[in-house]
Amino acid sequence: MNWTWVVAAALAYLIGSFPTAYVVALRWAGVDIRTVGSGNVGGSNMRAVQGVWATIAVGVIDLLKGAGAVWLTVMMGLGTGAACVAAVAVVVGHDWSVWLSLQGGRGGASSLGTLLVLFPLGFLWVVGFMAIGKLTRSTAVLHLCGVITLPAVAGLMRQGNGIVITLTVLAVIMVIKRLEANQRFQVPLEMCNSLHAGPMKAGTGRARVYGRRLLLDRDSRWASDSQSSAES
Asked: For residue 183, what pLDDT is reported?
């Protein structure tokens, strides 16, 4: 067993598992952010609690969590492999926090933070997709596109197998977390029935909800119905 990787993973997971949005929402507004808006424990859902400045603050802190966990691993001289393990672990910690019964955010900001250290050009690649998404009001879709295409970009730029594998794992984690949506992959029956006339078509309704979770990062077609895009 490579103990340096174990140390890197444990340290990064603990850093990532600090639920920034949950703590800020609880102390500033006295609410459990999991019960507000999209239920996402991340920066974007802070809009439903405290507005844009809280969103920015939480997003920056979560980004620093990702960057800090990987940077500490590098500074400790644990090697590139350990840094890649730390990148995955800090995002896993953010998405499935031990302090919130394995609930959390989507890992968007934390993943961006890891890229600042591991693959800075990859950071710019994803941010570029998000910027275009912001202008075209399709941030969730283009953010996903940026993350999914990033391993190929890293491969073309000869970043090494470790980086490519890490970016692939991070993309898979984002897909899983969007589909899971802090609901253990469950879809409320009323949501299924609202999409089709009658419970006999609930399976089709459930598939549509999963599709919207993946592409739009919410259960409903319109953000105002229930959820705003959750990118952190």
From this structure: 61
Quickly tell me which residue has 């920015």 as its tokens: 56
SS3 117: helix
For residue 3, the model assigns a pLDDT of 83
Q: Nearest-5° angle of CA 24, CA 123, CA 25?
A: 5
pLDDT digits (tens, 9 = 90+) for 122-173: 999 999 999 999 899 888 899 999 999 999 999 999 999 999 999 999 999 9
Alpha helices in the chain (DSSP H): 3-16, 20-29, 52-75, 80-95, 108-118, 120-136, 139-156, 161-180, 189-195, 202-216
Task: Tell me how far apart the alpha carbons of residues 87 and 110 are, in angstroms, rounded to a whole number.
Answer: 9
Count the alpha carbons within 13 Å of 111 in the hemisphere toward its beta carbon: 32
- Give the chain's length: 232
Tell me, what DSSP letter sits at residue 103?
B
Helix, coil or strand: residue 97: strand
Q: What is the pTM of this model?
A: 0.84
CA distances for 196 relative to 12, 33, 213, 220, angstroms: 44, 30, 18, 13
pLDDT recorded at residue 170: 97
Q: At 175, which amino acid appears?
A: V
Question: Would you give the end-to-end CA distance of the chain in angstroms?
Answer: 33
Nearest CA to 45 out of 167, 201, 228, 185 is that of 228
